[in-house]
């Protein structure tokens, strides 16, 4: 089955791009076909890339860019490459940068958009953060669409997570009701790397690199003293990709706790007993916990952030307190070091791998929009950039598979049991 991509209308204008991609080229969502596995419908995505014909006449086209949600290394690279592709390759009339996330689309915020220029974006990719500013929180759809119509914006690039992209789809639908052909094309962003049909979101690898640096320091600390325990809490709200990636890169980690794998603290098969065994044998231990892990051990509540995410309880501090009291009760003196690098792993500039990825996401987003695709994000499957209709993200979550290669590598590198139960 082909994923149905929405196109605003007939593409009538010649494209300045060389090497156009066929509109019929498709990439399968699943690469491996296992006849022994339960049958699943096949899903094929449209291949991203420049088209021979454009829906928008570049000379008459105005685009806007908005960055939403938490920071991710590479936001400025995406803004810069989007601008340069639209300006130099397509020669479009103007690119506006909406400020401070979705609230900048609403004139009531008083945040006038920036008019982007080559000078303005020249060296922004050397810095972390976003030139445009960002915020969490939904977009006021009617006000935003009225504003986009008033400003004659034909294309909006939404750089953000799945909530941002759902907002993007609503914008396009509301614009359609107004008879305004608005192309909304999303660039998926989160250091957590948990967006379906995107094998790697930009900023993830840079965050892993930063996290691995912290693990090296944490290892040195616990290894340099008798019965040293270092505990490192890393970001990862609902998925443990950062914790797993950093632990495998480090090869010094002894325990990795992630949201996908619930664990028990107490009892013979629990985490604390395993930690004691390790400490008695090797005299030091390095633990990594993803911030979303072990929430079942903490008070339940329903407090949410402006993006609608459940506010997490602090598993790092809880584990610290549990470990310290456990070893006190066991009368085993320990030297405990706690590391919470928190935002340090995501506020830096993109590394080379992410810079390359940002450039490709951005240029493919520009091509999709100019060809009139709307209500899509740029996905990445089997190293191919594709158009993923936003509605396919609804109710889907990319999570670390406990039976997959990544978790197997974590278990092999740490030597920890598959489960603490
Ligand atoms: O989703 C990305 C992320 O960095 C998570 O890992 C983290 O839980 C969250 O954002 C924190 O965001 P903020 O504190 O900026 O709202």
Give a quick precis of the structure.
The protein has helices at 75-89, 118-121, 141-150, 162-177, 204-223, 241-250, 271-282, 315-329, 352-370, 405-414, and strands at 6-7, 13-14, 26-28, 44-47, 53-54, 62-67, 94-97, 114-115, 155-160, 183-188, 228-234, 255-257, 284-290, 335-339, 373-374, 376-381, 384-389. The protein is an alpha/beta fold and 421 residues long. It is elongated and about 75 Å long.
Architecture overview:
With 421 residues, the protein is α/β, with parallel strands linked by helices. 31% of the residues lie in helices and 17% in strands. Strands 3-4-17-16-10-9-6-7-8 form a 9-stranded mixed beta sheet, with helices on both faces. The chain has a 4-stranded parallel beta sheet with strand order 12-13-11-14, sandwiched between helices. Helix 7 (271-282) links the parallel strand 12 and strand 13 (284-290). Helix 3 packs across helix 4 (162-177), helix 5 packs across helix 6 and helix 6 (241-250) crosses helix 10. The protein is elongated, with a radius of gyration of 23 Å. 6-O-phosphono-beta-D-fructofuranose binds at residues 70, 136, 190-192, 235-237, 291, 305, 346. The site of 6-O-phosphono-beta-D-fructofuranose has 11 residues, from loops.
């Amino acid at each position: 089955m082909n994923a149905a991509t929405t196109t605003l209308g007939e593409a009538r204008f010649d494209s300045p791009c060389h090497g156009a991609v066929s509109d019929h080229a498709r990439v399968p969502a699943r690469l491996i076909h296992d006849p022994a596995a339960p049958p699943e419908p096949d899903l094929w995505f449209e291949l991203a890339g420049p088209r021979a014909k454009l829906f928008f006449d570049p000379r008459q086209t105005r685009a806007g860019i908005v960055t939403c949600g938490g920071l991710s290394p590479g936001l400025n690279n995406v803004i810069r490459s989007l601008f340069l592709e639209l300006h130099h390759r397509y020669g479009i009339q103007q690119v506006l940068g909406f400020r401070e996330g979705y609230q900048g689309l609403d004139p009531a915020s008083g945040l006038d958009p920036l008019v982007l220029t080559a000078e303005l974006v020249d060296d922004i990719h050397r810095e972390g953060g976003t030139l445009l500013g960002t915020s969490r929180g939904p977009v006021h759809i009617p006000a935003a669409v009225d504003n986009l119509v008033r400003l004659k914006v034909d294309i909006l690039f939404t750089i953000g997570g799945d909530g941002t992209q759902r907002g993007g789809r609503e914008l396009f639908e509301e614009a359609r009701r107004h008879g305004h052909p608005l192309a909304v094309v999303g660039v998926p962003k989160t250091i957590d790397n948990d967006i379906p049909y995107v094998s790697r979101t930009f900023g993830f690898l840079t965050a892993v690199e930063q996290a691995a640096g912290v693990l090296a320091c944490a290892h040195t600390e616990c290894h340099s003293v008798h019965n040293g325990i270092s505990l490192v809490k890393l970001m990862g709200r609902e998925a443990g990709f950062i914790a797993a990636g950093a632990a495998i890169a480090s090869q010094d980690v002894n325990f990795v706790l992630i949201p996908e794998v619930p664990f028990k603290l107490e009892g013979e098969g629990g985490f604390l007993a395993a930690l004691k065994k390790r400490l008695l044998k090797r005299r030091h231990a390095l633990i990594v916990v993803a911030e979303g892990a072990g929430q079942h051990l903490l008070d339940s509540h329903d407090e949410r952030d402006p993006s609608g995410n459940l506010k997490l309880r602090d598993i790092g501090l809880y584990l610290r307190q549990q470990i310290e009291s456990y070893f006190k009760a066991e009368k085993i003196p320990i030297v405990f070091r706690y590391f919470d690098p928190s935002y340090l792993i995501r506020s830096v500039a993109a590394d080379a791998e992410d810079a390359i990825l940002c450039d490709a996401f951005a240029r493919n987003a520009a091509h999709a929009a100019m060809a009139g695709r709307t209500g899509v994000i740029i996905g990445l499957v089997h190293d191919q950039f594709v158009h993923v209709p936003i509605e396919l993200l609804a109710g889907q979550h990319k999570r670390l598979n406990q039976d997959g290669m990544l978790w197997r590598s974590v278990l092999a590198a740490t030597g920890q049991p598959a489960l603490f139960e």
